[in-house]
Structures are given as C-alpha cells and as structure tokens.
Amino acid sequence: MSCSIDLLKHRYLKNIKENPELFVGIELEYPVASLEGDATDVEVIKDLFHYLVSTLDLTVAKVDDFGNLIQLVDPISQDAILFEVSYTTIEFAFGKAETIQEVENRFNNYMNV
C-alpha cells in the first residue's frame, strides 16, 4: 500500500515547490452598458481602447480580424485589459501581485484615466 501511495505522491506532487512564492490573482469583468438604456455602442468601446493606449503605457497584445484592439497589456505589471468574448464585457486581468492592495492601486490608476 505504501508503494502505491509513494507512486501517487511522486506523480502528482513532484512539481509542487517546497516553498512557493504566493501571489494574488485577480480578474474583474464588467458589463458595458449605455447610460440611456440603448444598445451598447461598439464604436465607443473601440475608441476607449485607442484612448487607453494613447494615455497609458499599454501595448497592444491582440487585435481582432478587422484590426480592432481587443487586448492591451502593461509591460511592467503584465496587467491586461481585454474583451474576452464580445465588446459588451471588459475584463481586467491583473498580473502577479503580492497583496490585494497592490491590485487595488493599479485598478484605481486605470479608473482615474
């Protein structure tokens, strides 16, 4: 019995570090809606991404088949701002952080733009 347990431990636990570094991983998704209750204007969303690139130190990581920006990345923090499925949901996928307050500060920097 102990041989089988040892084999299972080796198979499934061998890649786990003894003293791993711990990081916070956070993704936030927000629906994009018109304040007037109308359908979401996709052009406003596309313009937002161009504005973010021109205002913040973000690089374009992905574009769609039509050349529209769909993922922006901060080269230092590795934070990504993206559209995962459609232009009606914007996602903030934050890079590694040691504390939730660090992520909060970075998020606030994006919101202050």
Detailed description of the structure:
Keywords: ATP-binding, Ligase, Nucleotide-binding. With 113 residues, the chain is of the alpha+beta class. It has one domain. Helix content is 34%, strand content 20%. The longest helix has 14 residues. The protein is elongated and about 65 Å long. It starts with a helix and ends with a helix. The model has no long low-confidence stretch (mean pLDDT 91).
* Residue runs with pLDDT of under 50 for 5 or more positions: none
Q: What is the overall pLDDT average? A: 91
- The value of Rg in angstroms is 20 Å
- Judged by helices, strands and strand pairing, the structural class is alpha+beta
Q: In angstroms, what separates the terminal alpha carbons?
A: 61 Å
Output the strand order for the largest sheet: 1-5-4-3-2
Coarse morphology: elongated
Helix and strand succession? HEHEEEEH
* Number of H- or I-type helical stretches: 3
**Main sheet attributes: strand count, strand direction, barrel closure:** 5 strands, antiparallel
Number of domains: 1
What percentage of amino acids are in beta strands? 15-25%
How many beta-strand elements? Answer: 5
Helical content class: 25-40%
Give descriptors for this structure.
113 residues
Provide a compact summary of the structure.
Keywords: ATP-binding, Ligase, Nucleotide-binding. The chain has helices at 2-13, 42-55, 100-111, and strands at residues 27-31, 59-63, 69-73, 80-82, 89-93. With 113 residues, the chain is an alpha+beta fold.
